[in-house]
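Weekly puzzle thread! Below is a chain. First person to post its structure in token form gets bragging rights.
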Amino acid sequence: MPEDALIIDLHGYTVYPGFIDPFTDYAIEFEYPKNEVPMKLYIVLNPAIF
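Winning reply:
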């Protein structure tokens, strides 16, 4: 460790995984909003797509 490294004492605190990985949802109660827009089905006229 470098001699001039900043040391932060977190004794007594909790570090959540989101601090390290912002895309994690461990220990977080969150409900994603439901999609209220109806999905439209389109007819594909180009047979090369299938």
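Puzzle host: Confirmed. Bonus trivia for everyone else. The chain is about 0% helix and 0% strand.
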